[in-house]
């Protein structure tokens, strides 16, 4: 996976060794210090666990701009998700990042390849650390195991929804195994493994952290897995959402602004944390969301589309001003101003705009409340269930939209999710899950003069991976 890296040491700064392309999934390159020699104490195993989060966090483009040498983790995720919906687009039509919003992504796209490799790096680090769990203190072994499996499930859940059938690897792959890493596993089996891993995490973890795996995070992600499977488990999803609600450990922030700038607040269930001003622990995506006054290296990403602006006008309430801003005619994301600094700061967007500390919000309580509604609807056209109305109304009340709702349609729910979770990389998955992606995106493409067809509901398997497999790894239809 484009010289993908495997963890040797991870504390705050990780030490990596790159493997040759012909070694592919071999986690122990010949040139590496023996992992067996490193994992000797509980602290060593914990360092390995933290290294899995480091793979999700990714490397800031401002720290190392070489696309062929590093993995960006979730820092490119908006390209593969928001940009492929009717929500946002790139500011220009130049370069591979602009291919996403125009549905021109091919098997050689470097950002898609990077994301694929990044999620597998998470998986491989998780598999590797599971081999050394028995070195940890007896009282920590179950927690470390659950944490690694949660992160493995999280990465596979991203992959299976974007690429469909993907290689399912749950153990460290031997150097001479030339098949396991390349055999695509049917979606149903991938989902089954995700469910198994998350159920184990739920049984073991507590809710003591928001920046690491927790019971509620595993419950919320599993609820979304149940809703996303080809045969949804609506009752299971409903039960999980209600467990989170009834725990009393999470609540909506009264001020929508605070969701994004009072980090790890009462609404956050799971976030991938970054540190401002630290090149090794910061993120660069916030800066790239600027355009009229550029704080990033490029012309601007996540530029807001007019039809989303129309939905904000109709249903955004007080979320609108927090979600996007118009600067010199450019409609730009406001949820993730670098470290909370807008264009009026001196300098604009602050001194660490490209080394921002804004967390990536993976799951928050409002999402759970709206999933609760979705689970109760169970694929039906409408609901007037009191429980569903209560969850739906809570989200709207916080937005200042306090008129009582007496019935909820699927269109109502999809609209509410759109304006509540805009720019949080949920819209693509929502459209797929609600079964309306093809119709919504076809209409959007016609409006924007793009060319869209159903094959683009899946991303292509990176050509580099197919080449490494000598053709054993197959391509998605139409690419």
Question: Roughly what is the average pLDDT, rounded to an integer?
Answer: 92
Uncertain residue segments: 1-34
Total number of beta strands: 12
What is the general shape?
A: globular
The strands making up the biggest β-sheet line up spatially as: 1-2
Our estimate of the beta-strand percent is 5-15%
The termini sit apart by: 19 Å
Largest sheet: number of strands, sense, barrel closure: 2 strands, antiparallel
What is the C-alpha radius of gyration, as a whole number of Å?
21 Å
Helix content: 40-55%
Provide a count of the helices: 18
**What's the helix-strand series?**
EEHHHEHHEEHHHHEHEHHEEEHEHEHHHH
Structural class assignment:
mainly alpha
Keywords:
single chain; 479 residues; mainly alpha; two-stranded antiparallel sheet; 18 helices; 42% helix; disordered N terminus
Describe this structure in words.
The chain is mainly alpha-helical. It has a domain at 274-358. Helix content is 42%, strand content 9%. It contains 18 helices and twelve strands. The protein has helices at residues 35-38, 42-57, 77-80, 110-130, 138-163, 187-204, 215-228, 234-246, 256-261, 285-288, 306-315, 320-323, 365-377, 386-398, 410-421, 427-433, 437-448, 463-468; strands spanning 5-10, 14-18, 88-89, 166-167, 184-185, 268-272, 303-304, 324-327, 330-333, 360-364, 382-383, 408-409. The chain has a two-stranded antiparallel ribbon. Strand 1 (5-10) and strand 2 form a beta hairpin. Helix 2 (42-57) packs antiparallel against helix 4 and helix 7 (215-228) runs parallel beside helix 13. The model is unreliable at 1-34 (pLDDT under 50).
């Amino acid at each position: 996976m484009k010289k993908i890296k495997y963890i040797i040491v991870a504390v705050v700064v990780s030490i990596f060794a790159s493997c040759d392309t012909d070694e592919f999934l071999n986690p122990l390159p010949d040139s590496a210090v023996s992992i067996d020699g490193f994992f000797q104490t509980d602290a060593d195993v914990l360092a390995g666990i933290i290294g899995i989060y480091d793979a999700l966090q990714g490397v800031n483009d401002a720290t190392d701009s070489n696309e062929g040498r590093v993995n960006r983790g979730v820092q490119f995720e908006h390209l593969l998700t928001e940009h492929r919906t009717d929500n946002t687009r790139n500011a220009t039509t130049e370069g591979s990042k602009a291919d996403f919003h125009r549905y021109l992504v091919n098997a050689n796209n470097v950002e898609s390849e990077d994301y694929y490799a990044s999620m597998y790096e998470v998986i491989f680090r998780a598999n590797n650390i599971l081999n050394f769990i028995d070195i940890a203190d007896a009282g920590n072994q179950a927690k470390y195991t659950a944490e690694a499996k949660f992160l493995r499930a999280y990465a596979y859940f991203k992959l299976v929804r974007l690429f469909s059938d993907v290689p399912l690897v749950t153990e460290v792959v031997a150097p001479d195994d030339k098949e396991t890493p390349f055999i695509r596993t049917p979606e149903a089996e991938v989902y089954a493994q995700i469910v198994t891993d998350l159920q184990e995490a739920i049984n073991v973890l507590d809710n003591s952290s928001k920046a690491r795996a927790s019971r509620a995070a595993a419950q919320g992600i599993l609820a979304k897995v149940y809703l996303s499977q080809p045969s949804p488990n609506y009752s299971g999803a409903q039960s999980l959402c209600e467990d989170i609600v009834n725990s009393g450990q999470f609540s909506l922030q009264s001020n929508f602004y605070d969701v994004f700038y009072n980090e790890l607040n009462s609404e956050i269930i799971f976030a991938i944390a970054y540190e401002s001003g630290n090149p090794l622990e910061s993120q660069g995506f916030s800066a790239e969301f600027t355009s009229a006054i550029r704080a990033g290296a490029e012309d601007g990403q996540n530029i807001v589309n007019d039809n989303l602006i129309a939905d904000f006008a109709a249903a955004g309430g007080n979320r609108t001003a927090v979600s996007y801003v118009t600067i010199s005619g450019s409609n730009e994301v406001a949820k993730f101003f670098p470290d909370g600094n807008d264009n009026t700061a001196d300098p604009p967007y602050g001194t660490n705009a490209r080394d921002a500390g804004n967390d990536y919000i993976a799951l928050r309580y409002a999402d759970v409340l709206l999933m609760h509604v979705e689970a109760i609807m169970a694929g039906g056209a409408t609901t007037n269930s009191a429980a569903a109305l209560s969850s739906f109304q809570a989200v709207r009340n916080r937005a200042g939209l306090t008129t009582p709702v007496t019935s909820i349609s699927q269109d109502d729910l999809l609209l509410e999710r759109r304006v509540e979770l805009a720019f949080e990389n949920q819209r693509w998955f929502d459209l797929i899950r609600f079964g309306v992606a093809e119709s919504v995106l076809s209409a959007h493409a016609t409006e924007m003069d793009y060319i869209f067809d159903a094959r683009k509901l899946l991303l292509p398997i990176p050509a580099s991976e197919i080449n490494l497999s000598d053709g054993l790894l197959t391509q998605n239809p139409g690419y």
